[in-house]
Amino acid sequence: MVSACAYSGAYPTGYGRYAKNTEGVPEEMFERLQASGFTHFQQSGTGAIRKYYNYVRVTPMVQPLDDLNESWPLHDEVAEAGYYAATLDTGIRCELTVGTKVAVHRYTFPEHSSARVVIDLSCGGLGIDLGRTVPVRAQAESMGHGRAQGTVVMEGVPLSVYLEVDSPGWRQMLWYDRRLIHGGTRLDFDSIRQTTLRPFGMLFMGPARAGQTVEVRLGFSLRGCEQARHNLERECGQASPAFDTVRLRTRARWGDHLDRVQVEGGTPARRTVFGTALYHALIKPCFGDDESPFWPTPGPFAFDVCTMWDIYKTQLPLLSAIVPERAGDLLESLIRVCEEEGNFPIGYRMARGADRFFRQASALVHTALADAHALGRTALDWNWALVHMVGDLRRMYGEDFFEHGVVHPITHTLDLAYAHHCTAQVARALNDRRLADDLERRGRQWTNAFDPGTGLLRDSEFYEGGKWNYSFRLLHDMAARIALAGGDKEFVDKLDQFFGFGARPVRQPGRRPDPAEMAAGYALNRFEGLNNEPDMEAPWAYHYAGRPDRTAEVVHAALTWQFGTGPGGLPGNDDSGGLSSWYVWASLGLFPVAGQSLFLLNAPAFERAVLRTGDGELVVETSGHRETPIGVDGPEGHPPPQYVQSATLDGKPLHATHLDAATVHRGGVLHLRLGPEPSAWGQELRPPSLSDPPAT
C-alpha cells in the first residue's frame, strides 16, 4: 500500500527535474536532482499526476524550521526494490524502506548541536501550476516519548499516520506556519481552504553526534490512527530499530515475485531492461486490504488503478498469470467499488469518486472479468459479478450505445461492443441464454464504428490518439474486421502504412515544438512507437491477416530501439506498469488478447524463458538463433529480426499462432524454431474470430 520517495516537487512523480509536458522534450524545472524531503504515496509512471499524492513529507535538517521548503542536491543515490538511499548536500545520509502498510526512514546525521526531523502533514501534489493538494480537514497530536499521530483528509480520503521516532533526548513539538508551538499537544483544523492553508506538522529536535542514526517509523491507514498504530506494530514489532527487518522482508517478497518470470540469453543490458520492466509491472495497483475508507466491511481494497485504459491489455493479464491471488483480489475490489460507488472505474485512485477518466474509455473491467471467469480460478460470486457487469453497460456513454448502437467519441463504441461480448460469455457460461443472446447481438454493433469506404474508424474525437491509432484494435471478430477493410491484402497494406514500411524516417520533436510541427507529425497517421496506449496491441493485428512475420519485425524493432537502461529508456509514460508489461510479454514472444482468454505467439527476445504461473510453469525455448538480439545498449549495426519457422507444444506440432489462456496458465514447453527469413508458419491457421464457422 505504501511507497516512499525523494520529493523535489517536479514532474513526473514529485521526484525529478522536469515541468509537466505533453509534447516534445520536457523542459527542466531544476538544473540538478534535488529533494526537500521524502514523501509517501506516489504514482508510477503516469501522466496526469498533478495534485495526487506525495503526502506526509519527512525532512531531516540541520537548518532552522524557516528553511523547511529548501531543496538540497542528492548525491550517492542507491535504488533497489524496496530500498532507496541518498546523501543530501547537508551531509545527512537518508535511507528509506517500506512494508505493506508502513514506511521506515533511517537518517545518519553529521555532528550538529540542533539536528531535527520535521514531518509536514500539509504537503501534497507537485510544485507545478495547479499541482498542489490542499487538505480540507486535519488533526495532529503529539503524545510524547517519540510518538505522534495525525489525520489529513486529502481528495476526500482520510489518511492517518502513527509514527515513532527513535531520538533519545530530543524534544518533540507541534508546529504551524513554521512556528513552534511550545507545550502544545494537539492541532485541529475543521475547515481548510486554499487561502487559509498554512503548513503544519511535528518536529523532533536535539543534538547529534557524528554518525548518529535516527529511525522514523510510520504506520498508515485509511481507517484512523488506531488502525495505523496496529499496522505499525504488526510490521515493525515492539522492539527498535526495525529498518533492517522491514527492508529484508520486503526484499524477500520482491525476490519471490520477480523470480516468477526468468529469462536466459541476450545481453546484460537487455536482461536489465527486462528485470526493470517486470519490477515496474508489479508496483501498482496498490492493495490496502481492510482499509477502504468508503465502506466498513473487511476485504480487498485496491487503488492506483491508474488507469484501466493503461493496464487492461497487458498488465492485468500479467498479474493474472503470475500473481493470480492478487488479480482476484483486484477484481473483487473493483466489483465492490461498482456496488458502493455506482460504476466500474476507468481510473481509481486514493480519492473519492469512481467516475474519473471516463473520457478515456468505457467498460474495461469487463475484459478482465471475462478472462478470469474463463480460467475458472477466481472465487468470485459470479452471479453477483454479472449483475454489475450488465448494469455498468448502461452507464455513462453506455446509455447512448444501448439506444442507438453507436456513440461518440467513436472509440467508446468499440469499447462497449467489446464489453457486451465479454459479458455475454459470462452470461452464457452461467446459463442465462436469453441475456447472452441479447448481449451478443449488441456486441456485433462494433461495425457501426467503422467507415466501409475507408476501412478505418469514422471521424470523431479521439483521446490521446487519432483515427489510425485506434483503427487496429484487436476485436472479437477480426475476420469480419478484415473483410470490412477489403480483405487480407488491403488490411495488411493499411497496417504497413500505419507502421511506416517503406516510408522516410520521422524527425522527433524537440523542446517547445510549435503547433504546426506537431500537426504535421499527427497528419502522418503513423504508429507513435508505444508513446501511448491506443495502439499498443496493433502489431499483433497482422496475425489475423496471416502475416505473423510483420508482427515479428515491428515488435523486434520496438524491443531493440525503444527501450534502454538509462534516462529516456522508455518510449512513453509507463502508466502504472502498462508499458513495462507490454515489454515483458513481447520479450517472451506472447501477447494476451484481453477479454478473449487468448495469447498470440511471436518470436521471443530471449533464448529461453520460464513463466511461473499459478498452476505450473510455461517454458518458452528457442532454437535456430542466427544471432541473439542486442538492441538496448547501443548495438553495432541493426540486429536482424528472427521469424518463427515452426513450433511445438510439449513435443507436438503447433501450426497456429495462438494458444488459449488456460494452456498458458497450465504450463508446458513451447519450443519455437527461429530463422532469419519469414516462413509459411501461421499464414493459414488464424486466431479465432466470432464469425468463424463452428468447429466440427
How far apart the termini lie comes to 50 Å
- The DSSP helix count reads 18
Helix content: 25-40%
Low-confidence stretches: 628-636
Biggest β-sheet: strands ordered side by side in the sheet: 2-5-6-7-8-17-12-11-10-15
Structural class: alpha+beta
- Indicate the radius of gyration in whole angstroms: 26 Å
Total E-strand runs: 30
Mean residue pLDDT: 93
How would you sum up the major sheet?
10 strands, antiparallel
Globally, the shape reads globular
This entry's quaternary arrangement is single chain
Hey, roughly how much beta strand do the residues contain?
15-25%
Question: Can you walk me through this structure?
Answer:
- GO terms for molecular function: hydrolase activity.
- Residues 227-675 form the Glycosyl hydrolase family domain.
- It is a single chain.
- With 696 residues, the protein is α+β, with helices and mostly antiparallel strands.
- The protein has 18 helices and 30 strands.
- The strands form six sheets. It has a ten-stranded antiparallel beta sheet. A seven-stranded antiparallel beta sheet has the order 1-3-4-9-16-13-14, with no helix packed on it.
- A hairpin with a 2-residue loop joins strand 5 and strand 6.
- Helix 5 (315-322) crosses helix 6, helix 7 (365-375) packs parallel to helix 10 (411-429) and helix 10 packs antiparallel against helix 11.
- It is globular, with a radius of gyration of 26 Å.
- 50% of the residues are buried.
Keyphrases for this structure?
alpha+beta; 696 residues
Task: Describe the structure concisely.
This protein has 696 residues and is of the alpha+beta class.
